[in-house]
């Protein structure tokens, strides 16, 4: 008989691993705040650049500060030729998250953060460059070697992502949805990728190493990769009835349903209602009669059967799809956003550092001697 899975303390669940002034997750049951501001308030009343400023510099900018910050970021979009050369050599069947990881690491070689005094500059450069970086590779590798111009006239990072992907100015609706999406994904306390960044920062490593490691952690389907995995699942179903039948089968087989459940939230993820509303608007905009109803049915069945709720990733899948974004680029958008949270945590860790080094409960053999190689089985 297989032993029951030991869950309670596993995955450091429920243990505090440090302090942060950046974010609270689930403190009033299902809430999410960035430096005290509710994410619902931010997504309704701010742009991603304002949220980036809030996380990285500690306050919401006034109009003059925002204008200056946006102008600065717009001036940092240029991709160095050596980075373009590397991107052009990455094959079309590479995963875009691996391209992000390599691109970030390559920039760390070309524009190394030599001192912590450069951390803000290095972060702004990554913020400005990431959308163009991934879409330069995507267009080159998937569009007959097309070399896009990353220096677009886009006013914001949200617009820059869509513009460099499709090589044309996006609609206002799409820019609005991207703004909301980037805000929702920006920060989430000690999640796996942020903790990766903090562990790396705690060794006094450089910013590009912290962010490269975080990208690797975000890639997995139990974390950021769930938006892509959710899309791969729901696109198979042609009606809510088919979706219900398939989900019931998956639950019976004890399969994981991607885009559902959470390590901290217990009853809902506050980001879901916001992105779900945008997904519904986009569904109407494109005249969809399948994907949104299928998604809504999956949400209903999962709650009815398991009391499992959609996390931020689930309705992002349909929302991104309706904007013509290829599924494999879903998680890189998460990177373009979460970079702000990761970097803010790196700054916070550096400001009050002790190397992160927990202990482990040993479960291996008792001390023993090495058997000479000729006597081993
Ligand atoms: C927005 C960015 C994010 O990273 S949000 C998370 C994105 N990940 C996913 O959507 C992947 C699917 N979800 C999961 O694997 C888990 O819910 C994650 C998010 C990893 C949390 O894991 P953990 O803290 O262990 O969950 P838990 O202790 O609440 O689990 C209790 C029992 O419920 C189950 N459960 C959980 N989620 C699902 C799911 N999506 N589909 C099916 N079953 C699920 C767990 O397996 C666990 O069951 P058991 O006690 O092992 O029998
Ligand atoms: O907090 C977590 O464990 C995962 C999550 O929702 C996020 O990083 O946005």
UniProtKB/TrEMBL annotation:
InterPro entries: 2-MeCitrate/Citrate_synth_II (IPR011278), Citrate_synth-like_lrg_a-sub (IPR016142), Citrate_synth-like_sm_a-sub (IPR016143), Citrate_synthase (IPR002020), Citrate_synthase_AS (IPR019810), Citrate_synthase_bac-typ (IPR024176), Citrate_synthase_sf (IPR036969). The keyword Transport does not apply. Residues 358-377 are annotated as: Disordered. Pathway: Carbohydrate metabolism; tricarboxylic acid cycle; isocitrate from oxaloacetate: step 1/2. It catalyses: oxaloacetate + acetyl-CoA + H2O = citrate + CoA + H(+). Residues 366-377 have a biased composition (Basic and acidic residues). It holds the Pfam family Citrate_synt. It comes from the Bacteria. The keyword Transport does not apply. PROSITE patterns: CITRATE_SYNTHASE (PS00480). Keywords: Transferase, Tricarboxylic acid cycle. Belongs to the citrate synthase family. This is Citrate synthase. It comes from Marinospirillum insulare. The gene is prpC.
């Amino acid at each position: 008989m297989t032993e029951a899975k030991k869950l309670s303390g596993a995955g450091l669940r429920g243990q505090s691993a440090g302090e942060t002034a950046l974010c609270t997750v689930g403190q009033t049951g299902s809430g999410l705040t960035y430096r005290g501001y509710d994410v619902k308030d931010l997504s309704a009343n701010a742009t991603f650049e304002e949220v980036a400023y809030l996380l990285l510099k500690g306050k919401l900018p006034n109009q003059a500060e925002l204008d200056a910050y946006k102008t600065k970021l717009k001036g940092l979009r240029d991709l160095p030729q050596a980075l373009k050369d590397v991107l052009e050599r990455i094959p079309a069947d590479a995963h875009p998250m691996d391209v992000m990881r390599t691109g970030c690491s390559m920039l760390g070689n070309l524009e190394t953060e030599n001192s912590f005094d450069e951390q803000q500059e290095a972060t702004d450069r990554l913020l400005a460059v990431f959308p163009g970086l991934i879409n330069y590779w995507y267009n080159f590798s998937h569009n007959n070697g097309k070399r896009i111009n990353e220096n677009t006239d886009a006013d914001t990072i949200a617009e820059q992502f869509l513009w460099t992907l499709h090589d044309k100015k996006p609609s206002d609706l799409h820019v609005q949805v991207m703004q909301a999406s980037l805000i929702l994904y920006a920060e989430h306390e000690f999640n796996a990728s942020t903790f990766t960044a903090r562990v790396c920062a705690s060794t006094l490593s450089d910013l590009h190493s912290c962010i490269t490691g975080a990208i690797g952690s975000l890639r997995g389907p139990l974390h950021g990769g769930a938006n892509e995995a959710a899309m791969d699942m729901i696109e198979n179903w042609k009606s809510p009835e088919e979706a219900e039948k398939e989900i019931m089968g998956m639950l019976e087989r004890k399969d994981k349903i991607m885009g559902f459940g959470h390590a901290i939230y217990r009853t809902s993820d506050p980001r879901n209602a916001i992105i779900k509303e945008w997904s519904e608007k986009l569904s109407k905009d494109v005249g969809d009669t399948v994907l949104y109803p299928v998604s809504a049915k999956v949400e209903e069945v999962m709650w009815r059967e398991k009391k499992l709720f959609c996390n931020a990733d689930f309705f992002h899948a349909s929302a991104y799809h309706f904007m013509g974004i290829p599924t494999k680029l879903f998680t890189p958008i998460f990177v373009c956003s979460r970079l702000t949270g990761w970097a803010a945590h790196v700054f916070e860790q550096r400001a009050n550092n002790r190397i992160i080094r927990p202990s482990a409960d040993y479960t291996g053999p008792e001390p023993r001697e090495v058997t000479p190689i000729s006597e081993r089985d």
